[in-house]
């Protein structure tokens, strides 16, 4: 039985998972996996603006609270995802009319209300998510268009004021695959930190595949981020097996072995980093049947550690045989 093994107990850094609140119900088949295999939880959706702040003067806490309460009852830490992003915005926010000051006030209220409610309960926040484009320029999202590039430092400032004890992260994807994007993100974060802003870490979303990025590029990205003095979160880890999106795809044991090797590489390379920079690794989902990848890319895929029947896959076994 899965309860006889524990993934997180094999590592001396936290091993987290992204979940939906319903998965924590005691009769849900994901629940024993969450409880026994992971010691950190992230809501895949429930702290995002469209869910938690659906109207300008309405916050909806019920679903986010469920995750916090489950975490408290089961001794897990919570990683907060995410305060400022360009996706999953409520309509009122997308259509907000105001000058720069009014946008700042609106953003401040959003961040302050959420971060103060969960003060001391959320260990760290993804304060700003995906602010850069692949070429390293700033993404022209609603925050940038209405507040200019200073929206990023303002967001960190407001989050810090609301919960001075929380660790604050910048989180983005393809930081290993795209050196120009990584450099731009690191340069800005170093610059803001030098100015005195409370920026503690970088989240490397790791939606990777069996064939890319290379091990060399993954290791280089981890090294550059920690060499710059930031804690590193391997956030959003999953390993796609259907890399070329073929419709005639067949899962086989060779693909599962290659997937296992990728997971193992990420964990082993991460283990070698200096302790003070190891914030943890978060896997983006529990079982293949509920991964975001098939729906989002409209293809078959099996990116996680457990299959649709909640059985551990070769990747899971590789991670606990260390
Ligand atoms: O809640 C509605 C439900 O009412 C409706 O019936 C249903 C029908 O489609 O949709 C539900 O919302 C979905 C939501 O997940 C909750 O399940 C959205 O359609 C769906 O788009 C949304 O997908 C999420 C995606 O972010 C949105 O961009 C994924 O679950 C989530 O895993 C994914 O996570 C992101 C990270 O936050 C940031 N980095 C990339 C990563 C993958 O896209």
Structure description:
Helix content is 38%, strand content 17%. It has twelve helices and eight strands. It has an eight-stranded parallel beta barrel, surrounded by six helices. α5 (100-117) runs parallel beside α7 and α9 (215-227) packs parallel to α10 (253-271). The model has no long low-confidence stretch (mean pLDDT 97). The structure holds ligand G3I.
Net shape: globular
Q: Segments where pLDDT lies below 50 for 5+ residues?
A: none
Class inferred from helices and paired strands: alpha/beta
Give the averaged pLDDT, no decimals: 97
Number of beta-strand segments: 8
Q: Main sheet: which strands, in order across? A: 1-2-3-4-5-6-7-8
Percent range for β-strand residues: 15-25%
Instruction: Give the bound compounds.
Output: ligand G3I
Rounded to the nearest angstrom, the distance between the terminal CA atoms is 19 Å
GO molecular function: endo-1,4-beta-xylanase activity
Family: Belongs to the glycosyl hydrolase 10 (cellulase F) family.
Active site: 236 (nucleophile)
Catalytic activity: Endohydrolysis of (1->4)-beta-D-xylosidic linkages in xylans
């Amino acid at each position: 039985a899965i309860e006889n093994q524990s993934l997180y107990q094999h590592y001396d850094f936290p091993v987290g998972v992204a979940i939906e609140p319903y998965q924590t119900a005691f009769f849900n088949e994901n629940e024993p996996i969450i409880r026994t295999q992971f010691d950190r939880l992230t809501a895949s959706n429930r702290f995002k603006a469209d869910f938690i702040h659906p109207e300008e003067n309405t916050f909806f806490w019920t679903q986010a609270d469920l995750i916090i309460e489950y975490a408290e009852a089961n001794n897990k830490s919570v990683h907060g995802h995410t305060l400022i992003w360009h996706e999953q915005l409520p309509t009122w926010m997308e259509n907000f009319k105001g000058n720069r000051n009014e946008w700042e006030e609106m953003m401040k209220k959003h961040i302050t209300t959420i971060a103060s409610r969960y003060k001391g309960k959320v260990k760290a926040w993804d304060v700003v998510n995906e602010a850069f484009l692949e070429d390293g320029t700033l993404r022209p999202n609603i925050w940038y268009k209405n507040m200019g590039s200073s929206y990023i430092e303002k967001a960190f400032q407001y989050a810090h004021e609301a919960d001075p004890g929380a660790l604050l992260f910048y989180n983005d994807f393809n930081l290993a695959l795209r050196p120009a994007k990584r450099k731009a993100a690191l340069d800005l974060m170093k610059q803001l930190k030098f100015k005195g802003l409370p920026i503690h870490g970088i989240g490397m979303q790791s939606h990777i595949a069996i064939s890319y990025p290379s091990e060399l590029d993954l290791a280089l990205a981890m090294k550059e981020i920690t060499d710059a003095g930031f804690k590193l979160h391997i956030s959003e880890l999953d390993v796609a097996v259907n890399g070329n999106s073929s419709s005639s795809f067949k899962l086989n044991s060779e693909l599962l072995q290659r997937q296992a090797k990728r997971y193992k590489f990420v964990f082993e390379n991460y283990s070698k980093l200096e302790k003070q920079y190891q914030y943890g690794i978060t896997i983006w989902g529990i079982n293949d049947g509920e991964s975001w990848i098939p729906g989002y890319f409209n293809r078959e895929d099996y990116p996680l550690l457990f299959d649709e029947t909640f059985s551990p896959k070769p990747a899971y076994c590789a991670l606990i045989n260390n």
